[in-house]
Design brief:
Length: 387
């Protein structure tokens, strides 16, 4: 039987986290007090100066199209941010402002993928990335990673899994769903393996800044000029719904990317771009830093509490706002566990099934994006449910 629509669209899998969210919202409309630990966004408001700048942009009628790569002031501000926070000199012409990190990933999938070409991606990993590759008729090559390498790729793993059709390796640090990071030396070694084989490194750095361990400030942009880096205003800057991110590309990719950005998107949201200029102000940065410190404290609380309940959190989660936990012995199926917990105790978690293959079915992703009191209440409900 032929598909009504394209085969590539049929091959794209739904996002379970969104199904959990939909059911949780439905329970809420029925008057239930649901604790949302399933969503991948901070619970903090967008910094006040950003909101004020967004309102001003509307009052000043900054509502037309911009250049496909964004307004120059914002590209310059992002370049300044790399200089001040990462000691990196990035030409604004290498920066493309996009519709979230997702817009950047879409552009990269289009730029780097011919039919059947492979991207090495981690299992577990953020599901949309493999679906972007599928959408452009590429071959997502999921490679299983464990706590032994902090759920990250290593140079050895990349070399061992490289195939004749492999062209791109995507790493994400800090990672969704595990919150773990990749060390700068390992990343450089991975780059060497890829470079020797004529491939490309794509580094998804959208949780950059939301890091809690030592030596936090690093970017793959420090390795070489020919890596592709994806970033976003969504998470660290607290702007998920504004739909703004960016891509840093090698200078020689500029012309082709411009052509594609013009055709695929015309430009990113213009009021959002003017608002985002204020994200780098001192006031915004202070607000963001206070939020980061709150997340760091919540992470410690949740890690200890979950381990006391028999969840096994492997590896060293040092970033983003996720813990990826293996269920206590008594439970085997994460999808079933999450659904029962939600229906009976009104705590929403995301089953590991979203993030990879069979081995993820014993894991749940927990977002610590609720205040301390709600997290404590969630732990209490989980304890009662488990016993
Ligand atoms: C690893 C990773 N990359 C990219 C994205 C895309 O986010 P956005 O388009 O909001 O920047 C997400 C969102 O959760 C993510 O977790």
């Amino acid at each position: 039987m032929s598909n009504e629509y394209s085969i590539r669209s049929a091959n794209i899998k739904p996002f379970m986290a969104m199904d959990v969210l939909a059911r949780a919202n439905q329970l809420e409309t029925q008057g239930r007090d649901v604790i949302h630990l399933e969503v991948g966004q901070p619970d903090f408001a967008t910094p006040a100066p950003v909101i004020a700048a967004g309102k001003q942009a509307l009052d000043l009628n900054c509502t037309g199209y911009s250049n496909a790569d964004g307004i120059y002031q914002l590209r310059q501000a992002i370049s300044d941010y790399y200089a001040s926070d990462y000691k990196l000199d990035i030409d604004p012409d290498r920066i493309f402002v996009t519709a979230g990190g997702s817009g950047a990933l879409c552009l990269l999938a289009a730029l780097l993928t011919d039919v059947g070409q492979g991207w090495i991606l981690t299992d577990p990993g953020y599901p949309s990335n493999r679906n972007f590759v599928t959408a452009f008729s590429g071959d997502p090559q999921l490679v299983s990673v464990t706590a032994e390498t902090q759920f990250q790729l290593s140079a050895e793993i990349v070399a061992r899994n490289w195939r004749a059709n492999t062209k791109v390796v995507l790493i994400a640090s800090p990672s969704n769903p595990t919150g773990t990071r990749i060390g700068p030396e390992e990343l450089e070694a991975i780059y060497q393996v890829i470079d020797n084989r004529g491939g490309y490194l794509v580094s998804d750095e959208i949780y950059q800044g939301l890091e809690y361990g030592p030596n936090t400030r690093s970017s793959a942009l420090g390795i070489a000029d020919d890596v592709f880096v994806v970033n976003s205003f969504s998470k660290y800057f607290g702007m998920t719904g504004w739909r703004l991110g960016w891509l840093v590309a090698p200078p020689k990719a500029r012309e082709t990317l411009m052509k594609m950005a013009q055709n695929l998107f015309i430009c990113p949201s213009v009021p959002a771009q003017y608002a985002a200029l204020a994200a780098f102000s001192r006031e915004s940065r202070l607000e963001i830093e206070a939020n980061r410190q709150k997340l760091a404290r919540r992470k410690e609380f949740m890690l200890t509490a979950l381990r006391q309940l028999g969840f096994r959190v492997h590896g060293n989660p040092e970033g983003a706002f996720y813990l990826y936990a293996e269920l206590p012995e008594a439970f085997t199926d994460a999808a079933h566990y999450c659904s029962s917990l939600l229906e009976s105790s009104y705590v929403a978690l995301t089953p590991g099934d979203d993030f990879g293959g069979e081995q993820q079915k014993r894991f749940v992703r927990i977002s610590y994006t609720q205040d301390y009191a709600r997290l404590a209440e969630a732990i209490d409900r989980i304890q009662k449910f488990n016993s």
